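tool=predict chain=A
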Amino acid sequence: MRLTNTLFTKMKHWSKVYSNLPDSYINRVTERVFWRTPRGKPQYLQRTIKTKKFHFSIHRPWTQEFQVEHVHPPRKPMIHVEPIKDWSFFRGDRVEILVGPDKGKQGLVMDIIQERNWVIVEGLNTKVQCIGKTKNYPGTFLRVEQPLLVTTQVQLVDPFDLKGTPIEWKYTEEGEYVRVSSRTGRIIPMPETAKETIDYKDPKTYFEHPKDTKKDDVMEETFVASLKTFEMDIMEKMGIKEDRIAKKYYWY
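tool=predict ok
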């Protein structure tokens, strides 16, 4: 089972949205402790220092490859990534490559790595890698897609004329926020694959499993905030009345 998962991860990397993983889980698996107070010290002296410097590559944080890369704190130079306010590339988009040997070719976005402003295009911008090489086995050579920078190396394809174009985000008359081609002024629709996750192809086709938490249970309001302490709340529910007289006290 472990080997199957590893090979499947090598074949296709999933974005965070596709994998449908919560942020709390991703933070937990990426957490690396590189110093901790030795045992035997008093409790109040215990201290843990955790690294927050991660080197993000094509391996997603929840994969085994990411764990291997971060066994020790990475000593690679800091890579400054300018955050993009309106992310414009989604899984299933047709894009045109602007650099490299595949310049001018078009393909579909297979994966998104927003931590580095990267996209991976299916079947393009590949590099040959040897996997499983040993003394008695020459290994298997595979073509692995390499990431492309969305700011300078790829462009979205306008479905009207099938040519690459810069885009901008605009509001329609109905108030919908859409991508518009700067050259033709036509709307570039969102791909259906962008809605796909590991649980469903489309949100409308998802059905609840027996072990899933029901929607009604999630929406049920089980806690009402009030200006009471825990003791006051218990006394009220059990019908206990406070008949003790508190001593006077002063604030200095």
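Helices lie at 2-11, 16-19, 23-30, 64-69, 215-219, 230-238. Confidence is low (pLDDT under 50) at residues 1-13.
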